[in-house]
Amino acid sequence: MTHRKIRVGILFGGKSAEHEVSLQSAKNVADAIDRDKYGVSLIGIDKTGRWLLPDQSQYLLNATDPKLIALNRENERNVALVPQSGGELTNLSEGEFRSAVDVIFPILHGPFGEDGTVQGLLKLAGVPFVGAGVLGSAVGMDKDVSKRLLRHAGLPIARFTVLRDGDDIDFGRISADLGLPFFVKPANLGSSVGVHKVSDKSGFEDAIADAFGFDTKIIAEEFVDGRELECSVLGNRDPIASVVGEIVSNHDFYSYEAKYIDEQGAALEVPAKLPDETSDRLRALSIKAFEVLDCEGMARVDFFLKKDGTVLINEINTIPGFTKISMYPRLWDASGLSYKDLIDRLIGLAIERFEREQKLRNSY
Known about the structure:
The protein is an alpha+beta fold.
């Protein structure tokens, strides 16, 4: 008896400054997924927010060049996933059912993809999806809210202050509170987009202007002189943590360029050279942060380790990068879980959560 393949929709691109990172991640997931077990539909979202079924055989242009990579718009079909569709995609131009998926694998980074918006749509559509739900995605994306929740739970974070568009922003007060240099970054963005290391008032004004171009809320955060360490988490109710990796950036800090463009931009030490006790502490903190922020499926937790042994949680990423130089899959590979098997586990976790939620009562 032949078993039907599970139909996976890889949702990528998005209305975000991290659009191009998502294209790279989607290509790697599509290349690594077990085609004997899964049927794959690639669903691209362009920068205006339109959902498209691109040419499945050539869905990317300049696929091997991170600077020029783009969604292929030729022969595209505009589609939508509507509430209670159960995974059926509607062809908007013809107004009829086009195809269906059993589970969605969102590889969307930043706003309109990693922040709970798409997750809410997928829940309304009644289709399982990989990764955190609405709440975990929303708080994980917002650096201000996630840091406050971590602090409330007694977990260690760096000092920071929140700045909103229209506030009276005083460089002197901020530098007195945080010291120099410090970082300025959008509250709801990742991949180091809009992030600046500030050393003086002139640089501060430029950094503020750029960060507010991406978000109406930004944060200023103290500079931490320490090693940059990362740990991957996997699971729903009983999450597990990978080995710990270290990033040694060859840039001034671990910038977008270092992460996704310049393959020599950083050395990735996997596993990191750490005493067992420190590794165990970081892995335990990763699981704790994952649970405090109501995450499910996957997340990568980033840390600073200071020379005196102090550990600070930098941030959590609920849809970490899946590019060929990304830490999340590399850390699992070093922990004994291959890229293909990792994807399989993540899809299984999505279906398991969906089936559990379907048993909940909606009347009394």
